[in-house]
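Sat 14:20. Reprocessing the chain from the morning session after the first attempt stalled halfway. Input below, unchanged.
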Amino acid sequence: MFSNQQRRIKEHPILDEEEYELTKFTFDGKEFFGKRGEMISSALIANGIQIFGNHPKDKAPLGIFCANGQCAQCTVLVDGLALKSCMTPLEEGQKIESVNDYPPLPDDNEKVVFKPIPTIDTDVLIIGAGPAGLQAALTLGKLGAKIILIDDKDKLGGKLLLQTHKFFGSVKDSFAGTRGIDIAKILEDQLKEFENIEIWLDSPCIAVFSDKLVGVLKKEKYVHINPKKLLVATGAREKMLAFPGNSLPGVYGAGAFQTLVNRDLVKSSEKIFIIGGGNVGIIAGYHAIQAGIEVVGLVEALPKCGGYKVHEDKLRRLNVPIFTRHTVVAVHGKNHVESVTISEIDEKFQPIKGTERTFEVDTVLIAIGLDPVDEFYTKAKEFGLDVWAAGDALEIAEASSAMFSGKISGMKIGKSLGLTDEDVPTEWEEKAEILKSHPGPVIKREKPIEEVGVYPVFHCNQEIPCNPCTSVCPKELIVIPEGGILGLPEFQQKDVECIGCAQCVAVCPGLAATLVDYREDSNQPKVTIPTEVFVRKIEEGEELIVVDEDGNDLGIQKVEKVRTLKKYPKTQLVTVKLPKEVALKAVSFKISKDFKMKEIEKFQEIIPDEAIICRCERITAGEIRELIKQGIIDANELKAITKIGMGACGAKTCSKLIDKLFREEGIAFDEITPFVQRPLFIEVPLRYFTGSEEDE
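Finished this time. Tokens:
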């Protein structure tokens, strides 16, 4: 059985643990157990191991950051080979060791025999099997194109596999009201119907070459693909912030946290703090609560959060403090995150001295935005390939928008191949623009005044692309009178009456709909409220604290009834009786007593020059800033002097921060000479280029 160190999520309101096989491995000579086939990084963290090695330059501790194969911070030695632990599956008997120095190179005394590299022709190569890539493949598959769809992960779905919440958008066009994890399965099942679509998993794209071939490592075999059309749907990588302590183990990208918690059911943390109030950060906070992890707080530099207000409201109702006009000052800890310091900022986004506050946490999530993974697209354009982009590789937006982007790109590619004469419908282009719309202003809504019958009450008050409640009402009593899919839903009584089926309550992605029923007692109406945070089934007769839209207590109420609808089995619909004065205000429940943040005395004043910019080579902002002040405006010269950008990540995480340092020093963008991009975008053993399938 598992050791006492195992940190697994055994109960979750949405996710069910799949059957798995235990396997034994060693880490630095000690014996542990993990799930066969899970990523080594997840197995290590599940066993309480957060430090995977120490940097050879300054012995700084290293752990995961992206959990997506982008940064190489999680590299370990697996049976003597240096591999990314977040991309390497756990197998029986593996000898895993921390990396504390660069492993020695093998003796160069063997004759290398080169064999021909197979070349495969196809109509379309799609790089990336996330929401955009899957929809593009389906669209092209229906048109009869011969397709190869590749992804570096072992499952289809990309970031859909991390999304346990229901999607916004349109029911018809982007599966609104369905959870991301379920959308991935739906699209996978649809793909299986097409014989003209080849799916290669565990098959990373390595490079795009000037002879218009694309190098792909198909599991353990290196091949060239010669596509007529190339579609890049590689998604996005998370942006990094430069602050003292930013490279400590326990500072994650929000996506890495969701990977551990939602994909692998690993309880990576006890107390987290979130930097960034967009949808990614807010949703990650909600996912943490569902996994039984405390969210100590969230900071957002702007005056208000940029994510959907219904997501933000869910956090506020669960007692998560949200600090707007604040930023992170420093993260503290010897070998792992122990605390975080935040402060207010002025109109120039600079910390205001004297406003610092430090909180005890073990994890800090960076969720300040995303950068497109567009290296393949850029290089393919340079070499003259007929290349297209979709999803976040084209433009950062929500997953619902990415799916529609893939659909449109697939249609355009199909026409360019002569498989259809049809243009992309104007309606598609219009919907695509709507789905990537930013949230509108908050609108004050008047509550219904009738105290008869039964009807839904909508607590959403911000225009976002969302219409599932209008789609599921069997009596067609819910409409969006203005603004199309971007408008606010309303209940409109017609010649038929609401039957109280509560489908609109169960489908709502923002958990922002309730059902009020005056039929039995107009003074004490029944109110049905959705919840998805209780890991257990709520029982009739137990008492819960009911709250309003702002998280204010409306009193302790006894549960009258609990049900789930067949189509939405993970959303509990809890009915309570409330005085009519507050019935229309009720929207959620508290899951615990008020949480008080533990603020601690310790404070380390920010020293910006000490912030790590290059995680791979441990180069600080101060080192780079000094060279810029000496007149160096060529990133490649910085590389030659400091080795910045020469690490395993290939400048994926530091290049944007270097650009920011140039701007801070007054250097215009067009004066800077950027990095020369490497021909290869991921690390790969040289033996694969010899055409050998085994290490001979």
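The radius of gyration is 26 Å.
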